[in-house]
Amino acid sequence: MRAEEACKTCSRKKAEMYVELYQAPEERKKEVLRQTKRYLEEAGTALSAPQMMAGVLDLLKKETGIRDPYERIKREYNLLLLGMEEEILRRIHEAEDVFRAAMHYAAVGNYIDFGALSDVNEEQLKELLEGCGRLRLDPEESMRFREELGRAEKLLYITDNAGEIVLDKIFIKILKGLYPKLQVCVLVRGEPVLNDATAEDAKMIGLDRIAAVIPNGTSVPGTEYGQISKEAREALDRADLCFAKGQGNFESLRESGKNIYYLFLCKCDLFVERFQVERLTPAFVNELRT
Q1: Which helix (H) or strand (E) holds 234?
Q2: Are 82 and 205 in contact (CB under 8 A)?
Q3: Phi first, then psi: what are they for 175, rounded to 5°?
Q4: What is residue 211's DSSP assignment?
Q5: What is the mean pLDDT of residues 1-27?
Q6: Nearest to residue 208, comparing CAs of 179, 229, 186?
Q7: What's the pLDDT tens digit per position in 29-81?
Q8: Kind and range of the H or E element at 214?
Q9: DSSP letter for each residue of 137-160
């Protein structure tokens, strides 16, 4: 799925935010932004939006020396959601449909996206979590997903953001309880990028204790099949089905032809328009039927 002009605008805004953290003279900051602008002009439309963003962020890392500007935010949201984990699990187990409740919490977690949103805040997150029982996911796709999980031996769960992965961990716990024969493997980002979850985040929240965790080997905020590590590609190829969180995974894996169920909140104008929904509405779609 190729990037559009709006994706370049988003990348430029992220570069400006990044450079604000750079302790350097103003002229040097302007030079870094000029380099970013040149990169985006030369990138054209050949790249996906996640590839384009990765190129911008890799350039910024090299020029500023700032490796992980979201490190503090990722830790804060991991700890915030860990503090809610037991209460959320209790609510899920008290729900009439445990699978549905757990999946809804996983969907809401996709709000914690500092790449697509500039106004993420704890208050709105808690409001979304409180109202997650009112979410509406495609009932036909949800039923197909359940049926396929019942037949599958291997599920690849592709994560998106830190903080959000605590809710993914909860959903995986529920899946393992409902489908005891299912082997779950989790794919995370290979290097720090935006506030996406890495192996360090997975370890911090204990995700590695309930499922195998594989870094994808790249700094792309998505899953570009041709760029991920051999181990990650093999996990993707061997899986009976995949469950991918977030817009970036949808943008990078779209048209792969693999049996992937995507779950994300529509956060940017492109996705709101594409799915004809209001901002922060969840989408649950399958690669083979979209």
Answers
A1: helix 230-238
A2: yes
A3: -60, -45
A4: S
A5: 88
A6: 186
A7: 999 999 999 999 888 677 899 999 999 999 999 999 999 999 999 999 999 99
A8: strand 212-215
A9: --HHHHHHHHHHHHH-SEEEEE--
